[in-house]
Structure formats: C-alpha cells, structure tokens
Amino acid sequence: MRFEQALGDLLDRLQANRYQPNLRSVLYDVSDEEKKRVLMTHSEKLALAFGLLTTSPGATVILVLAHQEKLDIM
C-alpha cells in the first residue's frame, strides 16, 4: 500500500466516525476548507498513517507528541 493511500484510508475512517477538526486552532486567515485541509494533513496524522502502513495488522502504534498542548490532533 502506498503512503498516500494509507493517509486517505485514515482520513476516510476519521470522517466515517464523524471526526470534525477544530478550525479555531488554525490561526491563518484562510477559508474553512483550507483550514480543514491543513488539519487533516497535520504531522500527527501523517505519522499515524506511516505507522499503520509499516506495521503488521493489529499492531499497536504509539505517537509521542512533542507539544504539551494540542488544540486539534484527532
């Protein structure tokens, strides 16, 4: 599976579970659609997609966050 496909699958699963990104956490003066795009490709989501792609099915993927406070990760 390619990385882009793994990320797309992850984003599809998030949307299927009614995930709604917190648009207030994007401080740029851009449209809501652009804010959604930024949040849906945030580094933690990229790391999770990579972890899911490179581990065996059923394996535990642990993300260690560098930031103390996050407004919107998942």
From TrEMBL:
<dbReference type="InterPro" id="IPR032867">
    <property type="entry name" value="DYW_dom"/>
</dbReference>
<comment type="similarity">
    <text>Belongs to the PPR family. PCMP-H subfamily.</text>
</comment>
<dbReference type="GO" id="GO:0008270">
    <property type="term" value="F:zinc ion binding"/>
</dbReference>
<keyword id="KW-0812">Transmembrane</keyword>
<feature type="domain" description="DYW">
    <location>
        <begin position="19"/>
        <end position="63"/>
    </location>
</feature>
<dbReference type="Pfam" id="PF14432">
    <property type="entry name" value="DYW_deaminase"/>
</dbReference>
<keyword id="KW-1133">Transmembrane helix</keyword>
<protein>
    <recommendedName>
        <fullName>DYW domain-containing protein</fullName>
    </recommendedName>
</protein>
<feature type="transmembrane region" description="Helical">
    <location>
        <begin position="46"/>
        <end position="66"/>
    </location>
</feature>
<keyword id="KW-0472">Membrane</keyword>
